[in-house]
Amino acid sequence: MAAITLIEAITQALAWEMKHDDTVVVLGEDVGVNGGVFRATAGLQQTFGSERVLDTPLDETTIAGLTVGLASQGFKPVAEAQFDGFMYPMVDHIVCHAARFRYRTRGRLTCPMVLRVPWGGGIRAPEHHSEANESIFTNVPGLRVVMPSSPQRAYGLLLAAIRDPDPVIFFEPKRIYRQYKEEVPDDGEALPLDVCFVLRDGSDVTLVTWGAQVKETLEAADKLAEQGISAEVIDVATLTPLDFDTIKESVAKTGRCVIVHEAAKTAGFGAEIAARLSEESMFDLVAPVERVTGYDTHIPLFRLEMKYLPSVDKIVAAAQRVAAAG
User: Fold this and answer.
1) What sequence ranges are listed for the domain Transketolase-like pyrimidine-binding (predicted)?
2) Predicted model pTM
3) How is domain 3-183 classified at the CATH fold level?
4) Domain 197-324 - what CATH class?
5) Per-domain residue ranges for the chain?
């Protein structure tokens, strides 16, 4: 079994599902002939034809509307927004229609669509190409928001997202598209949605994160172990619905929590986790919850981009502070 990158795992999952389910269609700007801006759909049009892998106009509003329409008529569309910052013209269709089908029809209709979104910074791209905008969509009832952090989880979670009867926003951390490889069996086995993954057991501090920041958080846990601090690392993976029980159980054990995310600090999804910990785990906490996040600015271009993102040193420092408290 060959090791593959995260982007190759996405392609592999799409090909598996299209081969085994004729209702799955892929659409978006340049996804067909060119195989997508990041080549996530490379070869799919040649294999499955232009009626199932559709090149659309450069019009995100149309892409979203067409996706919702296909989902309402028996298809399972997987659309691509070329970049995270291109999602905003899609919001009307996603929020006002896709997310409300089940509620609006009292469960008689659903909207089985996936919107794949290359997400986040770290690739030295210009404005609108490096945004961490997940919290906009975690606030919308009726949407699942999923973000894989490895090739194995990208494959399994995308299969689960396509099979889900409700709409899924599938954020793909583009900084780690080709950063490392894993062996990923192409067996069609989905991973569970709505579940956090405990990637490392620990007893002194809980580190909660998702997406590209999982890599830095695991590296921080290694550094903390050298200092005698045992860190438990949780990959949230499905932001909404949130598997808060896994986080709560971990904090009950460690008494401390650091939340790491790339998005701006104010009203980022980490604030929701911190709020719930204050509501439900107050008597387990022996130190205040800390957040290591981006800044309340747009991500700076090029030279300061990596300074904006959470780093191993920042995560280590935050964990040291909470470990020293109490």
Assistant:
1) 4-179
2) 0.97
3) Rossmann fold (3.40.50)
4) alpha beta
5) 3-183, 197-324
